[in-house]
Design brief:
Helix content: under 10%
Radius of gyration: 14 Å
Distance between the termini: 21 Å
Number of helices: 0
Order of helices and strands: EEEEEEEEEEE
Strand order of the largest sheet: 1-4-5-6-10
Shape: globular
Number of strands: 11
């Protein structure tokens, strides 16, 4: 699934959503100096990603883990050039969450975008929050 932020309704005032309504909680990313809605938390399933379009036309892969922590990294696999990271399986190594690129099989840290299999390669990593 790909979600474009302009498809989302306007963000509510900065009041956090109640825990009883997780579908109304948004995943937002800090892009430049502003927070931008990426998708609704309800669009995400633990262990599966969603590709989103950013305001600058780039793509991000957004994930939520089983503990409810959200992550966003660039969706383009730098080895193949394909926009597929949102489709990769999640895992963890040394307590660090990662996604494995489907075509290349290389792992990318969800917290900082580093490739765990090639230290010279990384993808953008975004600061995210739930609102």
């Amino acid at each position: 699934m790909t979600v474009a932020p302009e498809q989302l309704p306007p963000a509510p005032a900065s009041t956090p959503a109640p825990a009883s309504a997780p579908a109304s909680v948004r995943v937002e990313a800090l892009l430049g100096r502003r927070w931008h809605a990426l998708c609704e938390l309800g669009d995400l399933k633990p262990g599966r990603g969603v590709a989103v379009l950013l305001p600058d036309g780039q793509q991000a892969a957004v994930f939520v883990d089983r503990a409810g922590r959200a992550y966003a990294i660039g969706n383009q696999d730098p080895f193949s050039g394909a926009f597929v990271l949102a489709r990769g399986p999640l895992g963890s190594a040394g307590g660090r969450p990662y996604v494995t690129s489907p075509p290349a099989g290389r792992r990318f840290d969800l917290t900082d975008g580093r490739c765990l299999d090639d230290a010279a390669v990384s993808v953008p990593a975004y600061t995210v929050r739930l609102r």
